[in-house]
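Narrative summary of target 7.
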Amino acid sequence: MGFWERAADYVPLLLQGVWLTLIVTFLSVALSTLLGFLWAVMAWTRHPVLVAISRGFVTIIRGIPIIVQLFYIYFVMPEIGINLTAMQAGIIGLGIAYSAYQAENFRAGIEAIDKGQIEAAHSIGMTDQLVMRRVILPQAIRIVLPPFGNTIIMILKDSSLVSTITVAELTRQGQLIAASTFDNMTVFTLVALIYLALSLPLTFLTRHLEKRYSQA
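Modeled conformation, tokenized:
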């Protein structure tokens, strides 16, 4: 039986894992974006307590491997009464882990805005919330979009880590198929090709955004 014949048998099973991979990626991106923006805004307020909380969180989260964070949420939290499914733990773990990187992306975008514009907005009576909505965000989004695309790609690839807590996404499905068929070469070649197929469109989109906004 050749490679393509075996691949035809394995691909339908692997595609079941692709669906979960996409769900984990999408929800983790959404959570990390919301939390990352929150940490960035807290740092922007210049309020000592909020700044300390934001910087402390980002520093701690970036210093702990993602797989350890996943293990902690899935295996340790139940000991204090917080029980999550593997899927929930995976999404929350990836979302929290990547919120630290998203926060740095947002912070860089916010700090790139000319401070003169912010001072001018305040001088005409705009509140901080209005300045953020009307002055900062429209410009910061243009700066943040390219690194945001890179973050999505990283989350997509790191979604494979949730296989370690038994989520049956693409990598986990590959492990199960390989364990039952002993056909490691075919299975993991297919897994790699599927990840590549999922990543390439995002890679091209990110490059397009980088070119577009570098010329703007």
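The chain has a mean pLDDT of 89.
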